[in-house]
Amino acid sequence: EPQQLGDCPNEDIITKLNELMQLHKAKPGEEDRWRTFSYGKSIRALKNYPRRIRSFAEARSIRGVGLKTAQKIQEILQTGELQRIKYEKSEDVLVTRLFQGIYGVGQATAFQWYAAGCRTLQDLRRGTGGVKLSAVQKIGLIFYDDINDRMPRAEAKAIFDLITPIALSIDPKLSIEIMGSYRRGKADCGDIDILMTRPTDDGKTHSGVLSRLLNQLHDAGILVEDLAIPDDLHDLEATYRGLCRLPHVDTSRRRRIDILCVPWTCRGSARLYYTGDDIFNRAIRMKANVLGYSLNQRGLFGSVVRNPSDRRVKTNSGEEYTMWQLRVLVASETEEEIFKILGVPWQEPHERVR
Ligand code: DCP
Ligand code: MG
Ligand code: MN
């Protein structure tokens, strides 16, 4: 049983770590999710620790307390403060975080705008300091709240259920599926991630479907803004990003939508990638690397072909390798075979978190 915080010999440390955790929790980044998770784990461990911590080494020895947290505990022990809290609350951090909530704005742009004197979204709308937004960033600014809010699972399904018959009317043999957080069973989704492919046993492919689908979804009032249209809409491998909404509902909000098209043979590795979550993907890729493979959305590749002749080879997709770097496709058609070859016990999508 955890003790009451009041009786806890490390209460001051927990209070500071908790304050820092809350600041990270309020931020959207993947790094922040990690930190929130990691501080949460440390705090639980500290609540159960029966003695006053005296040193870095002692902090580090507690199960659940990582290196970075132990360093912060040491700082609190020595100074009574945690500088990182002040940093996380400083104006430049808060403002650039706000700016990075605009779709298409990264850290570099956010800091440029800050340096130009912009402090609020209104400053950006007015072009304070001469800042100019790209077309995509303008959309990101207009729909700032819609894009940053998550949608209920049921809304993702409702929109997908409108898209499916339109896609199948273009080609009834199309395979279309929602991936991402939806497939992992989450109660809310940041966007709708759609994977599209088509079997080729009749000699046909899904080439050309995306372009017709986008037109029809625009006509139906489901797609409302394009954010990124692939250069070659007829490529078997293409990613579209846009905003969609439930049509004919004046109050419906704009939601982010991604459509990923992949060749039929890559569907297993693509489903694995696109189901995530991103941290799970990182872990399984690392596992593949340790075993001498490399894993991406196109497949699991293995056994480096060593050839001392150092001849240059170009793949279909234009990547260049030397012979000794050539990688051989090991599996890509099903998720199951990839798990099996990597010796990872099967995990259902909802289990694929961290
Ligand atoms: N993905 C990844 N690495 C990234 C981005 C994405 O591995 N940097 C993979 C894993 C994700 C999937 O693509 O689960 C879909 O990406 P999203 O950004 O849409 O993330 P989720 O659908 O998992 O979460 P959200 O509900 O926030 O959209
Ligand atoms: Mg998603
Ligand atoms: Mn997505």
Automatic annotation (TrEMBL):
Record domain DNA-directed DNA polymerase X: where: 8-353
GO molecular function, one term: DNA binding
Transmembrane segments: none
GO CC annotation terms, alphabetical: nucleus
Active-site residues annotated for this sequence: 72 (nucleophile)
Gene Ontology biological process terms, A to Z: DNA replication; double-strand break repair via nonhomologous end joining
Signal sequence bounds: none
Keywords: DNA damage, DNA repair, DNA replication, DNA synthesis, DNA-binding, DNA-directed DNA polymerase, Lyase, Nucleotidyltransferase, Transferase
Organism superkingdom: Eukaryota
The family this protein is said to belong to: Belongs to the DNA polymerase type-X family.
Protein name listed in UniProt: DNA-directed DNA polymerase
